[in-house]
Amino acid sequence: MAYGGLAVPIIVMSVFWGVVGGILPWLVPKGPNRGVINTMLVTCAVCCYLFWLIAILAQLNPLFGPQLNNETIWYLKHHWP
Amino acid sequence: MAFRSEEMCLTQLFLQVEAAYCCVAELGELGLVQFRDLNMNVNSFQRKFVNEVRRCESLERILRFLENEMENETVIIKSEKYPETPLPREMIDLETVLEKLEAELQEANQNQQTLKQNFLELTELKHLLKKTQDFFETETSLPDDFFSEDTSGLLELRSTPAAAAAKLGFTAGVIKRERMVPFERLLWRACRGNVYLRYTEMDTPLEDPVTREEVKKNVFIIFYQGEQLRQKIKKICEGFRATVYPCPESATERREMVDGVNTRIEDLNTVITQTESHRQRLLHEAAVNLWTWGIKVKKIKAIYHILNLCNIDVTQQCVIAEIWFPVVDTGRIKRALKQGMERSGSTIAPILTAVQTKMSPPTFNRTNKFTAGFQNIVDAYGVGNYREMNPAPYTIITFPFLFAVMFGDCGHGAVMLGFALWMVTNEKALLAQKSTNEIWNTFFSGRYLILLMGIFSIYTGFIYNDCFSKSLNIFGSSWHIRPMFSNSTWNEHVLEENEALQLDPAVPGVYSGNPYPFGIDPIWNIAKNKLTFLNSYKMKMSVVMGITQMVFGVILSLFNHIYFRRTINIVLQFIPEIIFILCLFGYLLFMIIFKWCYYNVHVSQYAPSILIHFINMFLFNYNDPTNSPLYTHQKEVQSFLVIFALIAIPWMLLIKPFILRANHLKAQRMLQLPPISEGPAGDTEVEITQPNNSKKAGRENHSSGHGGHDDHEEENYLKSSGPW
User: Fold this and answer.
1) Which of the listed residues B417, B440, B473 is the one where a domain comes to its end?
2) pLDDT digits over A14-52, tens only?
3) From CA B432, how far away is CA B177, in angstroms rounded?
4) B250 Cβ partners below 8 Å, 6+ apart?
5) B331 and B388: one domain?
6) What is the DSSP code string of B12-58?
7) Which family does it belong to (chain B) (predicted)?
């Protein structure tokens, strides 16, 4: 029961990493380390966003389903919505 | 966002001889300067300050000796602050102090040894007297004056000349237990059985003063008759290093001796304790200063090593040094030199003159305690050329991130983070400990690396949905079991019959249509075919991340080409590289994402295999019936890409060597012609050919290279900044 469908997670994550990689670098105080910190923020945002995106794209259209134990199925049937 | 190594300048430094020491000391404290060795062809034993270095080394020897003596007994005090660099005259003071200390300590050690030796002998004598007393008492049949008078009873039977009626003598002594048996045997053989030996073991082991080990000894007493036997016994005892003690024959004398020995032992004990405390006091006083002295001596030695690298212009009372330093630090260096000059009390200011050179400057990347670890990792692969882009700032994130992609467990990541946080918060205390354990030092010097690895591991752990190998169901799974019962063939009977059943996403409701919002769905963790899904996902993810990083790296090389203005590299290297990587691996990336977006379970029977497509692309094999095309016109697109990529290979590899060779031949021809001042053509040649050769030394003799610059050089060579 992933809430909000596909749009909400995409918007939330894109905005979050967008802020980290695009807005925060402007807010870093001037000093000798500003360049390094900005590089770190942008690299981090790109890597982490890409990683999350791949995880969600891989599960978008599953070609096969999970194979479960019959006991697990029985338990889940009763406990999961 | 390009970070390059700092701009460096080569400067000649003219120092007054008196000021040289202090100026070098100040520069040493600053740590921003690299001295060039101007005396390369001079043997290290013929350099000017060799004697001072020797003196420093003998001081270090004394310090090591002191440290050895203190090893188990005293604690060496280390202070927080490093001592200031001492002046040359302080070295003489240090020498006198240390040499006096060494002499006193050695004398104290010597005395202690002698006293202990005496103590040992007295103890042995005491035991000896006791044992012989025991021995004589057991032989109660012997009257007290057995030895003093002729025992007429025994000797009457022999009516031989008086010479034969010699007194029965005895020798008493102490010998090591191990040597007892051979001693006895030799005694028996040498004296033909005419001696009588009695021995017992000494109960208490004694301490050998030299080796400080315990030795076990035996007390023996030998009875013999005659002078010759006495000599023989004496020689044998000497040979076996048995100590012989004069033991009085009568019991009263023995008792007196025992008393005397006991008193002497007590006195000796007092003296030994006093000597020991004196020695401890000496060591304790030295321990207070030992660490400071060590640092001072190291600093003095380092300064003299540096002074050995400089030229001494004795006629002009001047020391000449050549130094590299970053241009931005010129102010700090000038201030340091001024301080050095003031400290030495000289009045003439040091002079700095810039030197124009074709030498390749050293690569200097300024780091702080956080970035130093990452810069070290990058330098381990190879230090960059001067003013090349420094990959370390990007490595700060990508290195821990790639580690986290491999590690991917938020529980274990949290443990790692905890460990790293502990190391970072207790940094100062742990640094002060100066441990010599290599494994600990490796972990501690990488504490910021481990910190970042921990943080990213927690993030990737959440995405892989892996916490101590269990999944977390935070948002609710996208897979539902009940629709399999209501909309498909499952029921209680099917459940009982089959041990494992597979959910079918084609059945409406089973898969909600919206993927799990953050990471891998938790149902996969309890699925039996979990690896089938995860393997495919992780492999594709690795390919995507890897290709992204590689393309990023190639683009960084573009920045280098632009900075060094090497158009030939852009055209002949960067462009074919980008074409090759994008046409082949960029296309692979496209295929992966395309398949994720456009193929679903309803066509899963016919879902194409990317791997097979990729292989067939290179083989130009489009007749495979089992693998349907990914999209229309795939054949045309792929053929174009492969051919384009194949064209890029000779473009990348074959053209540039010919151009370089042509340039080189042209330059050679210029050498042979009479020197004509070269116009811009010469300059561009130099620009193209020189930087492509990373070893600068060989190119310095290129006259065509010098041709364009000669005029400027004459003017600029002696551009001095003057006394300031």
Assistant:
1) B473
2) 999 999 999 999 999 998 889 999 999 999 999 999 999
3) 50
4) B144, B145, B148
5) no
6) EEEEEHHHHHHHHHHHHHHT--EE--S-TTS-TTSSTTHHHHHHHHH
7) Belongs to the V-ATPase 116 kDa subunit family.
Structure confidence at residue B342 (pLDDT)? 87
Q: Specify the residue for token string 């300064």.
A: B303
Residue B21 CB neighbours (<10 A) = 23
The pLDDT value given to residue B672: 86
Same domain for B372 and B311? no
Give the 3-state secondary structure of residue A5.
coil
Q: Do B532 and A74 touch (CB under 8 A)?
A: no
In sequence order, what are the residues at sequence separation of 6 or more whose Cβ sits closer than 8 angstroms to the Cβ of residue B567?
B561
Query: Does the residue B661 lie in any domain?
Result: yes
First-residue to last-residue Cα distance in chain B: 37
Q: How far apart are CA B299 and CA B85, in angstroms?
A: 6
Give Cα B157 to chain centroid, integer Å: 86
Contact of B593 with A57, CB cutoff 8 Å? yes
Q: Tokens representing B275? A: 């000597």
Taking Cα atoms as reference points, which of B697, B609, B531, B520 lies closest to residue A60? B520
Q: With b meaning 16 or more CB within 10 Å and e meaning fewer, what string describes B495-523?
A: beeeeebebbbebeebbbebbbbbbbbbb
Q: What is the mean pLDDT of each run of 10 residues along chain B (724 residues)?
A: 85 86 89 88 83 90 86 69 80 89 90 88 84 72 50 46 57 86 88 84 77 80 86 87 81 84 90 89 84 88 89 79 91 89 83 88 91 93 91 94 95 96 93 85 93 96 93 89 84 84 86 89 92 94 95 92 89 93 94 89 80 91 84 90 94 93 93 64 44 41 40 40 39
Looking at the structure, do residues B371 and B304 belong to the same domain, yes or no?
no
- Based on the fold, state whether residues B653 and B566 are members of the same structural domain: yes
Q: How far apart are CA B454 and CA B410, in angstroms?
A: 9
Distance (Å, whole) CA B688 – CA A72: 69
Do B407 and B461 reside in the same domain of the chain? Answer: yes
- The predicted structure's pLDDT at residue B3: 86
Share above pLDDT 70 across residues of chain A, in percent, rounded to a whole number: 95
Question: Does B232 reside within a domain?
Answer: no
Across the interface, whether the CB atoms of A47 and B397 are under 8 A apart is answered: yes
Instruction: Output the CA–CA distances (angstroms, integers) from residue B400 to A26, A48, B377, B416, B683, in the order listed.
Output: 24, 12, 12, 12, 44
From B486's Cα to the closest Cα of chain A, the distance in A is: 11
Structure tokens belonging to residue A53 = 């995106």
User: Which domain does B643 fall in, by range?
Assistant: 549-665
How buried is residue B4: exposed, middle or buried, by Cβ count under 10 Å (0-12/13-18/19+)? middle
* Whether residues B553 and B661 fall in one domain: yes
- Enumerate the residues of chain A whose CB falls inside 8 A of the CB of residue B532: 64
Question: Distance from CA of residue A43 to its chain's centroid?
Answer: 15
B27-30 own/partner pairs: CB under 8 Å, 24+ apart: B27/B323, B27/B333, B27/B336, B27/B337, B27/B340, B28/B85, B28/B299, B28/B302, B28/B303, B28/B306, B29/B85, B29/B336, B30/B332, B30/B333, B30/B336
Tell me: do B640 and B607 sit in the same domain. Answer: yes
Q: Are residues B588 and B618 in the same domain?
A: yes
In a domain, B118, yes or no: no
Q: Is residue B715 part of a domain?
A: no
Nearest residue in B to A59, CA atom: B515
- Contacts of residue B493, defined as CB under 8 A and 6 or more positions apart, other chains included, come to none
Domain boundary among B330, B354, B378: B354
Determine whether the interchain pair B520/A69 forms a contact, defined as Cβ–Cβ distance below 8 Å.
no
As given in the structure block, the two tokens for residue B56 are: 């420093």
What secondary structure letter does DSSP report for B518? Answer: S
Contact yes or no for A69 and B499 at CB 8 A: yes
The number of domains in chain B is 3
**Single-letter code of the amino acid located at A55:** A
CB atoms B597 and A57 under 8 Å: yes
Give which of A67, A74, A75 to mutate to test B binding, by max B Cβ within 10 Å. A67
